[in-house]
């Protein structure tokens, strides 16, 4: 759906209803990123009234949650190439890009998206038919054929590039079992800490509930964590309980888990040690609950 700019939360909900729900019905759950439309009170209130649950993605990873982000990348590559010389008319040919995408056979299923959704492949357009005696019709077909061919070339190129890049970086994924504890990377989780360099690189440990597919796992997260609990294996690492050598066998105390709130992650303040003024802003030196003195930081 071509839009003049980023829509508000209510406009996004209305677009979904008018263009998606009226064809396929209401969903049970919506998985989205942490964009401002999807974290707003309006968005949550709208779908609460409809009985639809909201799940926020843990971060950007193409292999997570049904390849949605990967598909956006493929369409984006085509649009960037096509719009370079047709920026004023990109939206009127967006339908052809979608038709080409839906007619492209996917390597994972061996089917086109049309076949997966409709059960059959609609016929392709007869570009080599007899010219019409109406110039406007001929012009429309010439432009559409050009866009169709460009769309297919760019989409095929995007698939080949993505596959070759993924193969270069792909290695044997570690195998985890349900019940095993793992650490979760904070690489794509927004932490409400003033210094990212001093923020924990992993949080947890969390228990694996089940394996979704060979490279995706569902974790048992605390109920206050309002993020989608399914993660790619690249964001996980095994948990090995620490041993206190000075006092014999035992488990070291792990830092406390951060508190996840609607717009990010929060940590408990143990004590405010000092204050200072930086320009027009007042800052406080905070000692965080459960963390050592090296984690103290100035926050506004």
From TrEMBL:
It is found in: Nucleus. This is Uncharacterized protein. GO terms for molecular function: nucleic acid binding. GO terms for biological process: DNA integration. Residues 1-121 form the Integrase catalytic domain. InterPro entries: Chromo-like_dom_sf, Chromo/chromo_shadow_dom, Chromo_domain, Integrase_cat-core, Retrovirus_Pol_polyprotein, RNaseH-like_sf, RNaseH_sf, SH3_Tf2-1. One of its GO terms (cellular component) is nucleus. It comes from Hemibagrus guttatus. Residues 267-300 form the Chromo domain. It holds the Pfam family SH3_Tf2-1. Transmembrane segments: none annotated.
């Amino acid at each position: 759906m071509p839009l003049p700019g980023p829509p508000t939360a209510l406009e996004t909900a209305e677009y979904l209803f008018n263009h998606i729900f009226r064809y396929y019905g209401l969903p049970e759950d919506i998985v989205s990123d942490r964009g401002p439309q999807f974290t707003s009170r309006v968005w949550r209130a709208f779908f609460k009234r409809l009985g639809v649950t909201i799940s926020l993605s843990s971060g950007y990873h193409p292999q997570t949650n049904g390849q949605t982000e990967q598909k956006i990348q493929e369409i984006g590559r085509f649009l960037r190439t096509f719009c370079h010389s047709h920026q004023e008319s990109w939206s009127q040919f967006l339908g052809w890009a979608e038709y080409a995408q839906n007619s492209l056979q996917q390597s994972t299923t061996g089917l086109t998206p049309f076949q997966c959704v409709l059960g059959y492949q609609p016929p392709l357009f007869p570009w080599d038919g007899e010219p019409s005696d109406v110039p406007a019709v001929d012009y429309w077909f010439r432009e559409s054929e050009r866009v169709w061919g460009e769309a297919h070339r760019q989409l095929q190129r995007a698939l080949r590039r993505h596959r070759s890049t993924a193969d270069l970086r792909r290695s044997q994924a570690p195998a985890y079992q349900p019940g095993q504890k793992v650490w979760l990377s904070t690489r794509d989780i927004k932490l409400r800490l003033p210094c990212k360099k001093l923020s924990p690189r992993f949080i947890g440990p969390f228990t694996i509930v089940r394996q979704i597919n060979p490279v995706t796992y569902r974790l048992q997260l605390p109920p206050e964590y309002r993020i989608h609990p399914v993660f790619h294996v690249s964001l996980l690492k095994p948990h090995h309980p620490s041993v206190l050598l000075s006092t014999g066998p035992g488990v070291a105390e792990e830092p406390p888990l951060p508190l996840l709130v609607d717009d990010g992650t929060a940590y408990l303040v143990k004590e405010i040690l000092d204050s200072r003024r930086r320009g027009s802003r007042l800052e406080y030196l905070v000692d965080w609950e459960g963390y050592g003195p090296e984690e103290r930081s100035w926050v506004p």
